[in-house]
Amino acid sequence: MTTGEFALRTDGVGKRYRKGWALRDCTLALPAGGVIALVGPNGAGKTTLLRLVVGLLAPSTGTVEVLGHDVTASTSRTLARIGFLAQDHPLYKRFTVAEMLRFGRACNLRFDQGLAEHRLAKLGIPLDRRTGTLSGGQQAQVALALALAKRPDLLVLDEPVASLDPLARHEFMQVLMGAVAEGDVTVLFSSHVVHELERVCDHLVVLDNGRVTLTGDIDTLLTEHRLLVGPRTATGPERSGAVVETVHSERHTTLLVRDGALPVAPGWQARPVALEDLVLAYLRRPGVDVTAVGAA
Ligand SMILES: Nc1ncnc2c1ncn2[C@@H]1O[C@H](COP(=O)(O)OP(=O)(O)OP(=O)(O)O)[C@@H](O)[C@H]1O
User: Fold this and answer.
1) Which keywords, in A-to-Z order, does the entry hold (predicted)?
2) Complex ipTM more than 0.90, yes or no
């Protein structure tokens, strides 16, 4: 992958199922390199977007470009550069780990079996065990080792840690981040868990009710946004910047604003906002019901 290449570009992407729209008007430009988190509540459209990215679904509107190629017209050579780990870490439960690796090698041109064996040995996961007898955390690690052995340029993971306990979650993210540090892979993963993202991600996409409500480089987003705390007021200070959210307590008003460079009004204090609070504020904003928009 060359510097400056986009890992993913979407333009006006929508996906409509029989019951209505799951995704509307999704326009993104995500750089290659680093880790991108896709965050949103249940039913936001995360899985739909990820399946569009890996070519398992075709968009109803718009275009999806992955690693510089329109994914709907992609050749097997382009698709071979994309790794995908589905939500439930699919493995053949009666296969041993070694058989799963052989299967991976048979299905993938660039499969590096030695790399997978090395990763699993470091984690103490025996190759002769049936995958169905491994713990949930170990199964997730086997699925990750298989996905990484494909040596993808873009690795897409759908809620990879959702079913794992905190320790297994931590170990999984450590292995994933180690792979990012070692190689030239861009990682795109979806998650409900927001509080660990700041530590591990470079880029953020917030999806709510089928719409992108926030996207950008995480450091930039945190610099652009801040909390303004002042005396309780109905309107807050006069501001030209966008007020994302207003919260009143008995004596104070707190505004989350996206105007990092503007001076602070007299009597008000500016504070940095934590990433989790930023994401939650965007998710609390009233959105548009995409199933109702043009659904006729
Ligand atoms: N195959 C399908 N057929 C019809 N509707 C679907 C299908 N897949 C998803 N949907 C609907 O599309 C919307 C988005 O679903 P999606 O699974 O993409 O969301 P999600 O953010 O991944 O949710 P979760 O966090 O619960 O996995 C939901 O309303 C869902 O019911």
Assistant:
1) ATP-binding, Nucleotide-binding, Transport
2) yes
